């Protein structure tokens, strides 16, 4: 039986915010300590400390008056080492506990530092109440963290193990689909569906600008949270529906981060392409659905019937939504044609498959 890891997020009751902020301040102190220590070791010895190298330097912090669990203090050092390596920097930003640029609260923990009791999470000898929307008691709690959002609300995030559904054989798909992401319409599928979603940022843009001009910071944070939650809700519903309907999903690898640095930044970020692909990936993995991102280069220009590049090209042809192939005469919807080409590319990759290493011969074994 195969298992996969999933992260569950629970909202904590607001009455625990004061305690969690105090613990977050201590987390910031430990973070800043290992940050400075890492820099000093680099200057003196020209080497970086790993997460485990920090343990001797933070040992005994709990006995010195810290309310943090010793496992939590170790988790801070290990997380710092991972983030520093990802950022490719010698030193990361300081975590600030107060002031205008206060860092949002964050408290990591290991599985041994937390337990369940009567529907509450016990951490640092304190029972924390939460809204349990997943039935947490049926899972084995793993490592995770407590995190604070911009509005001061706290969340309990934990990893759990769930049973993984095995994927079908490559020839046993009931239905497969190619998806082309866009800005005018959110997406088009290879079975000739055009999916339109609400643009939540555009919908509240004027109200948000009004609150920003009036310097109503609480209102601005609330509007941003509303936009974010509404976007996530509709993307969750769409991704869940697609995973339930299809046995294989192939999507174009459009570079959202690059487009977010252009004039189209607001529209790209409002669409949430990267979040949508992430949702499709982990939901497909749990449901046993094949998911793959394929190269979408020339999928718009290539006719899905004769494979000739007779379609609209360049920035000057972005407004052309429908076109007829000059070679075979087939009439195409721009995005649906791209989705059909994405599906064909995905099927070709599945047909090739993953090469199997040859078994060692008896002479080699002997």
Describe this structure in a few short sentences.
This protein has 366 residues and is α+β, with helices and mostly antiparallel strands. The chain folds into two domains: 3-163, no CATH class; 176-352, Nucleotidyltransferase, domain 5. The chain has ten helices and 15 strands.
Structural descriptors:
2 domains, 10 helices, 366 residues, alpha+beta, 19% strand, disordered C terminus
Write the layout of secondary structure elements.
Elements: E1 3-12, H1 17-45, H2 55-58, H3 70-87, E2 106-109, E3 115-117, E4 120-123, E5 126-128, E6 130-131, E7 144-148, E8 154-163, E9 176-181, E10 187-189, E11 194-195, H4 200-213, H5 217-245, E12 248-252, H6 256-259, H7 265-271, H8 273-287, E13 290-294, E14 322-324, E15 331-333, H9 334-352, H10 362-365
Parallel strand pairs: 9-12, 12-13
Antiparallel strand pairs: 1-6, 1-8, 2-7, 3-4, 4-5, 7-8, 9-10, 10-11, 14-15
Poorly predicted runs of 5 or more residues: 354-366
What is the CA-based Rg, rounded?
25 Å
State the helix count: 10
Biggest sheet layout: 5 strands, antiparallel
* Sequence of secondary-structure elements: EHHHEEEEEEEEEEHHEHHHEEEHH
Mean pLDDT: 88
In CATH terms, what is the fold-level topology of the largest domain? Nucleotidyltransferase, domain 5
How many distinct folded domains?
2
Percent helix range: 25-40%
Q: Provide the CATH architecture of the largest domain.
A: 2-Layer Sandwich
